[in-house]
């Protein structure tokens, strides 16, 4: 049996968990949530962790992985942690002699697809996934996250991505007018996934269509399936998912993560979502065969980090 440290460090909360790995199965045995802004540095956050009643201490686990919402360099550094007052540099802290690495938060979501975290996922579209086919992961929250999970040489590798900053495709006069509106309101060089299929995007769509300025959570609570805001957002979300499934040829399936759909499943259960996902002049049969699941497990990032750390045990 091996003990594994996992973490999911976000702009609001930093979640830590201790896992036991035995017989090919990961089991969470302890966890703690700390306020990210309650520490002036990553070093101070770790000091708070070790001083708490958390059951793990350096020397009590065999590997570790920390998921962060930002670009990771060489598995060790995340200079800019969005919405947090500091970055993370593992070179500046000590976990003992065991391997500990940083991974992107959506890389963790991809690895979570190989764990119990997704067992209760909601089915958006039925399909048959190839056992070792490429798995696509996408999810809207504060940003639009992308990752992919590939099987190679007997192990799983998740690819990091900053796909949320790709220019978002729009079609037709109304959508092009919205693209210009989106750029003006968001102050960005172009309308990107991070400003379209996100909380910000939901607010901007609603403002464009109704003239009403609301926070994303207020829009989410007020819209119904008949709302134009819901139709537009679901269509854009379906388009992002279709494009990612096609880009990867995701024969292993597509998982939707992120807080937006988890908190309001209508955004991906809406008829406009699946209609847009199927909207293609090529590969129609493929798109209709891709199993799509919505992962609503808030702890999936921890499970994904633990899965990656478990793989480190075999590579060190």
Automatic annotation (TrEMBL):
Alphabetically list the UniProt keywords.
Answer: Kinase, Transferase
Q: Which CDD domains match?
A: ASKHA_NBD_GLK
Its Enzyme Commission number(s) read 2.7.1.2
Recorded GO molecular functions are: ATP binding; D-glucose binding; glucokinase activity
Q: Name one GO biological process term.
A: glycolytic process
A Pfam family matched in the record: Glucokinase
* Name this protein carries in UniProt: Glucokinase
Gene3D superfamilies in the cross-refs: 3.30.420.40, 3.40.367.20
Q: Which domain of life is it from?
A: Bacteria
Q: Which family does it belong to?
A: Belongs to the bacterial glucokinase family.
């Amino acid at each position: 049996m091996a003990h594994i440290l996992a973490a999911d460090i976000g702009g609001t909360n930093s979640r830590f968990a201790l896992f036991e790995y035995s017989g090919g199965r990961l089991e969470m045995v302890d966890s703690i949530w700390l306020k990210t802004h309650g520490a002036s540095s990553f070093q101070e956050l770790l000091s708070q962790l070790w001083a708490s009643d958390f059951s793990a201490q350096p020397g009590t686990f065999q590997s570790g992985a920390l998921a962060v919402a930002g670009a990771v360099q060489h598995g060790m550094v995340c200079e800019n942690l969005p919405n947090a007052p500091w970055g993370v540099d593992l070179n500046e802290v000590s976990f003992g002699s065991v391997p500990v690495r940083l991974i992107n938060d959506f890389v963790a979501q991809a690895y979570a697809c190989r764990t119990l975290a997704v067992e209760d996922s909601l089915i958006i579209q039925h399909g048959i996934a190839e056992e070792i086919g490429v798995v696509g992961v996408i999810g809207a929250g504060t940003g639009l996250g992308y990752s992919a999970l590939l099987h190679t040489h007997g192990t799983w590798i998740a690819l990091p991505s900053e796909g949320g900053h790709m220019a978002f495709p729009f079609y037709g006069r109304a959508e092009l007018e919205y693209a210009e509106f989106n750029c003006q309101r968001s102050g960005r060089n172009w309308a990107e996934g991070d400003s379209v299929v996100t909380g910000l995007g939901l607010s901007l769509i609603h403002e464009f269509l109704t003239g009403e300025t609301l926070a994303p959570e207020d829009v989410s609570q007020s819209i119904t399936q008949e709302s134009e805001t819901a139709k537009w957002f679901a269509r854009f979300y379906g388009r992002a998912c279709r494009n990612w499934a096609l880009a990867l040829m995701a024969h292993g399936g597509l998982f939707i993560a992120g807080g937006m759909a988890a908190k309001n499943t209508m955004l991906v259960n809406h008829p406009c979502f699946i209609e847009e996902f199927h909207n293609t002049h090529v590969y129609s049969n493929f798109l209709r065969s891709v199993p799509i699941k919505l992962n609503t497990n808030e702890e999936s990032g921890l499970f994904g980090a633990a899965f990656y750390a478990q793989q480190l045990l075999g590579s060190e």
